[in-house]
Amino acid sequence: MARQTSTASVDGTEKSISSSGGVYQPILAELTDDPFAPPGALQLTDGRPRSPLSQALTIFYKRALVARRSWLTPLLAVLIAVCGSCIPLVFLSGQDTTCATQFENEIVIPLYFPDSPIYLPALGPGTQILESPPNIIATLGTTSSFLQTENIPDNATFVSTINQDYLNLTFGGISIDLQTGDSLFAWEASPPGLTGPTMMNLVTNILYNRALNQSGNVASTPNLIYANYAAFPHLAAGTLVDLKWVAFFGAAMAVFPAFFSLYVSRERRSAVQAMQLSNGLSDPVGLWIGHLLWDSIFSVILATIIVIVFAATTNQFTGLGFFWVVLVLYGIVGALFAYCVSLFMSSPLSSFAAVAGYQIVMYTLYLGGYLLTLTYAMTSQSGTIITIIHFTLSMLSPVASVMRAAFVSVNLFSLLCDGTTPVTTTLLADIMRYGSPILYLSVYGPVLFGILIWADSGSILTRRFLDTNGHQVRMDEPQANFEANRQDVAAEARAVASSNDALRLLHLTKTFEGNKVVDDVSYGVSRDTIFAMLGPNGAGKTTTFNMIRGDIIPDRGDVFIKGTSVLTSPRIARLSLGVCPQFTAIDSQLTVREHLLIYGRLKGLNRGNELKTNIEALMIATSLHMYADRLASQLSGGNQRKLSLAIALIGNPSVVLIDEFSTGIDAKMKRDMWSTLRNVAVGKAIVITTHSMEEASALANKVGIISKQLLAVGSIDDLISRYATYQVHFSCPTREDVTRAQVLMSRIPGSRLADDVATRFEVPVHEGSGLTLAQLFHILSSQGDFQEYSVEKATLESVFLKVIRENNVMEEDNSPGRRRGFRLW
Ligand SMILES: Nc1ncnc2c1ncn2[C@@H]1O[C@H](COP(=O)(O)OP(=O)(O)OP(=O)(O)O)[C@@H](O)[C@H]1O
Q1: What are the transmembrane regions (predicted)?
Q2: Which end of the chain has fewer CB within 10 Å, C or N?
């Protein structure tokens, strides 16, 4: 079992400045008892490839762990869907689902004049019916004999009488020209408007019997048409009752999938997804299937509850089996839709608002489209228009499909009718009924899933289509533009072309919008090496880092991790890669142990003893074991960075990338973290980016100074001896003393003023410089007569400044538009 001793702390910092890694050995000797492991190495099991489906189960398990502490969101989703569907059922009770035309008002009013209710109460002055020719009403027989009539001679008199007396006439009259057959009738048209139809019935009967007489079909008693009047039902009157339920149901359906966007959006925005994709989750298919599996549970639960409640409480629904299928499919598609929206939103809340808002708008459009069509469109065309609305809006939002299923289930708009006949059960799956929602949702799901995978593996897909051969260079190609003082860089490029380093960068080049940000960078990092990538702001460190991770595709060149190309085989290469990003990306609802459990599973460690042993070893090595069951969000900043390091290390990757490991951490914690990193570094190739020369000096045994190009590379001692070996600093109280110091130093060959202070000088003291340290002291003491001065070996910082100055590097200002940070897509 690996053990960390408490003596592995601050003093190692100084030792590592003058050493190339060997100092770690005594500290780490206790960490492993594996005879085959490198001396002092932390004993960890190598990760194994896992299928996307098996990784999906790990993401599913993670969601279950998170849900133990954060159960409100799924509960709310289920509650809103169930309550919004079931409580409004009260509006449905007692509705008849038959296809027969239903009259709201069953009262039938007789129109045959003698029976008509308008006649009897109206007896009195003005109630006589004008008739021409005289007594023509009497041809209708005894039933009409008691009607009061007024004889009119002809049509012309009839018209003039009406014109003059219409204010005094209660009913009107009838006039038929027996010669020509011209018929007139007049009626009083004030509401309730029954006089018109009554008079029409009277005229009809007279003309009918005249026609019978003329055709010789004379009957003993007149044939009478007893017409009746009943009001048409108001079209929406019956419909609106069901619409109340549909309105609540649709609103609940529109909103509940928005809850599915909350977790994935938080996971994405806090860079946890990127962390997973860089540390074991080799394929976004696993990520999204895992989330979908989890959220689908709630869709199945709510669909089942809703259908059971419907079946138990009312007989208003038809085809509940199909309805259940639609609800489940809708839940799945709604979740995928919410995931897709979360890709573009900046926070969980905005994702929620965007999903719910869009769905509500589409639901309103869909419902409004139906109602407007029924209200304003020609009756003969309304069916076609509704069908067009349905099939069009269903393409734009999944909520249209579930609305259609709801309409069908309660036979709204007679969708379950074929004329006046109810459709049979076999026709329920018809495209005009449950068929189209099921079809649309079945197509919608894979399309949305495809969008998710495309968005998250854009670089991988691009890589597939990329003709990488065209971008390759010969790996031994000399870098033509090296200047004389970059022989170290040229030598590194030559060496790495054929080395077997765990990490090899070969001629990496990247241009963004015409701006070359990484230019022909080559270096190698072998095992047991911590390589510090140094450079001013905007130098291309993060871009290089991301090309190593395989998240940015180089325009030219390649990266090899344990001999596997990141460009052509990213999934295999990433198996040997661990990434500790600049910004800590942790799940706030998981403990330290649970984090390592999830990442260990993603990296293919076997459940049980193997996983447990690796987790314990890592927690001890990073001093996190005392916080094992604490929520990661409750750790200090330094311990969160350590957790990120432990995540990067689980699965024992050969290459570990660490971006700005201790930025923003206090001095004590920083040294503690450096100690931790040194403890776990044995046997690995580690690349760190940092702006802290102190950190690089404390940790690195190889340094690369980069500003688009690699400007210098080598061990810290190499660089110091190459660029400036010693510094002389005079204490000069007066201006004369400053001048004296400068005159004295100008006599020493190769001496030059340092950048920062006018009394600090760099002096080359090395083999071939013609000057020894003893000679330097001799000159200073014999010719200077200075009260106080110091001679010290140059630091990495002075080398860095010198390299930057010599290459005329400008530091980039941090303009707000720059793309920064860990997450890329
Ligand atoms: N996706 C991108 N699109 C356009 N320009 C980009 C993109 N990513 C990085 N850059 C540009 O590339 C240059 C190098 O950026 P990079 O982040 O790699 O530098 P850096 O050395 O990591 O800087 P710092 O030390 O400030 O983190 C910058 O000018 C930056 O604006």
Answers
A1: 71-92, 245-264, 285-310, 322-345, 352-372, 384-417, 438-455
A2: N
